[in-house]
Each structure stands twice: as C-alpha cells, then as structure tokens.
From TrEMBL:
It comes from Robertmurraya siralis. The keyword Magnesium does not apply. InterPro entries: LytR/CpsA/Psr_CW_biosynth, LytR_CpsA_psr. Gene3D superfamilies: LCP protein (3.40.630.190). Keywords: Membrane, Signal-anchor, Transmembrane, Transmembrane helix. The keyword Chloroplast does not apply. It comes from the Bacteria. Belongs to the LytR/CpsA/Psr (LCP) family. GO terms for biological process: cell wall organization. This is Transcriptional regulator YvhJ.
Length: 343
C-alpha cells in the first residue's frame, strides 16, 4: 500500500521557522547573558578574610539563596582621593529571607560615632565616624571592606554575611546604563555636581527621571535637608527601590553587556558568581512595595568640635532585634541558651 505523504503548508513551515529562530536566539542570548554576568562577577569577587569563613556572630556560614542572609552595601567616596583610601559615603544593611520573601533596608548614618582599636586603625585609633572604617582599613592593611563590615556588626550586634562595594563612578555609569532611574521627589532642593566643578543640580518636587550625575547628587545631599521626613537616608532607600524596579524590567536584559562591564570595573563583593546567580533566581521578581525600611534612632551631637550621629541604646536594641528576627537569629539564640543551661 502506498502511503501518501502530506505536504506541509507554507504557513506551518513559516511558523516552525520562526519558533526555531526564537529558540536559537533565546539560547544564544542566555549564553551571552550568562558569560557576561559570570565574567563581571568573577572580576568583582573579593572574599573577606575570616577565620572560619563566616561572621564570628554565626555558628556556621549561611547557604546563600536558601537561608536568611544579610548584605552590607557600601558606597565609596573616591573621587577626591583618585580612588585610594576613600571613605564610605553610604552604608546600608539589607536582609534577604528567601523563606518569606521579606527584604529589609536599614541605613547607617555615615557620621555614626564608633571606636577604633590600634589593630584596626593604627595611629588613628580612637573615636571616629563609622565612614572612616573603609579608609583606615585600607591604610592600615586591615582590609577596607573587612573593617567596615566588622564595625557595622559591632554597632548592630548582627552578623554581616556578605558585602557589595561600589564607587561613585560605578554608581553614575550604572544609572546611565539603565537609561536613568525615575523617582518621586518629595521636596525641592539642590546639590553640587562633583563631576562639573561644583555646579548646582536643582531638584523640583514631582516625578523625574534622573541620569547618573543627578542620581548621585540625589542620594548624597545631606547639608541642605529640607526636613527629617525627607532625609538623606530616606532618599537612598527610595532610590534603591526605584533602581530595583528599573533593573528587573525587560529592557535591562538588552543592556547586560554594558552593565556587566561597569560592575566588573567598579564593584567588589564577597558574593561568588554562583551565589549571585542564586540570589538572582530567588529575588528576580521582587515586589519593591513590600520592602521594609528602617533607620537608626539617635541625635546629632558636637563633640570636640566634630559633628557625630550618636544612636540611642534603645534605638540600637530595637533595630538589632528586628534584624535578628528577619535573619531568624532570635530562635537560634534561644536554642543556644537552652543548650547552655542543659549542659
């Protein structure tokens, strides 16, 4: 019996060809995406030297992407020092809980008063602002990121599992690569443009898409704060949420090559390439409306003619307890106490 072969219609051939093209393009782009991000992450990787490979405030290292994790975001002011021994202009603690999908952001004022030992700061040992930790750690061969992480750990009494450091150039270039970031400006103000000889950048009330230089001025302004409601810390948290919304948009996928180059040159992090992909997998669809923001309670004081932010003991305890709960450390501490009593 002769079997009659059906001829495939032109539209079916066309449809299959398009589908095959889409599959090939997707696979090729996926490989392109992976290679660029992996190379950038590898270039940025810089582990913190720790005796057991994890914070002294943890019994064991966390499993990134599966267990609650804390990150310290460090924005380094390096434009005035040619990239050497800059200070931490911005310190933000982020907690990520993959079990609950909770994310918290806590700003640490750069003027927070802390103590430095001789081992940590050498001849600069004594009372200083916390933003000096990055500079002293670098000059004293203690480790800029390491000392900054440890000072935040001591202040909040929580483990900092990983860090991400970005310099001002990287911040500016990243915002430009994203095509700008849109924020809703609550109050008008101005700030100097560090890249244009100190020219003023004016911010009017309302929604505005900021370019890199404008974004840097937006998050840095602190000397002309309009009120406590729209403080520097609040603007930084607002900008982070807006940047996340922009970064997870579809358009960003087509800029991965440019973004990866910027990150590789201007970012250092203790997150390995594998850990970065694990976090991306868990938080790629994060809802920024659910991010919880906190700030330290305290007051500004002039001590020995120097301005400091002095956090209250109650405020520190409150923030510490909140973050421990987010990291699920409160239950662990209770378990440790029971074990000690039983022994």
């Amino acid at each position: 019996m002769r079997v009659k072969k059906k001829r495939m219609s032109k539209w079916k051939k066309y449809t299959i060809s398009v589908l095959l093209l889409l599959v090939v393009t997707t696979v090729a782009y996926g490989g392109y995406f992976f290679i660029h991000v992996y190379n950038a992450a590898t270039e940025a990787y810089e582990e913190i030297e720790r005796p057991d490979g994890n914070s002294e405030l943890r019994n064991t290292a966390v499993n990134i992407g599966k267990e609650p994790t804390s990150l310290l975001l460090i924005g380094v002011e390096n434009y005035a020092t040619s990239g050497e021994n800059g200070r931490a202009d911005s310190l933000i603690v982020v907690t990520l809980n993959p079990k609950t999908a909770n994310v918290t952001i806590t700003s640490i004022p750069r003027d927070t008063r802390v103590e430095f030992t001789e081992e940590e700061a050498g001849k600069y040992a004594g009372t200083h602002k916390i933003n000096a930790a990055y500079s002293y750690g670098s000059m004293n061969d203690y480790g800029a990121n390491k000392l900054t992480v440890e000072k935040v750990e001591q202040l909040l009494n929580i483990p900092i599992d990983e860090y991400v450091t970005v310099n001002f150039d990287g911040f500016r270039d990243l915002v430009n690569a994203l095509g700008g970031v849109t924020v809703d400006i609550k109050e008008p103000f101005w700030e100097k443009d560090i890249y244009a000889g100190g020219e003023r950048i004016y911010f009017e009330k309302g929604e505005k898409k900021l370019n890199g230089e404008e974004a840097l001025a937006f998050v840095r302004m602190r000397k002309r704060e309009v009120n406590n409601i729209y403080s520097r810390d609040e603007r930084q948290r607002q900008f982070i949420e807006a940047t996340i919304d922009e970064a997870i948009s579809t358009n960003t996928l087509f800029k991965v090559g440019e973004i990866s180059k910027i990150l590789g040159k201007n970012v250092t992090t203790s997150l390995s390439p594998t850990e970065i992909f694990q976090l991306q997998h868990v938080y790629s669809s994060i809802n920024t409306a659910k991010i919880k923001s906190f700030e330290l309670e305290g007051e500004g004081q002039i001590i020995d003619r120097i301005y400091y932010f002095v956090p209250s003991e109650e405020g520190l305890d409150n923030i510490s307890n909140i973050l421990k709960q987010e990291l699920e450390l409160a239950a662990q501490e209770d378990s440790d106490d029971i074990e000690i009593k039983n022994n």
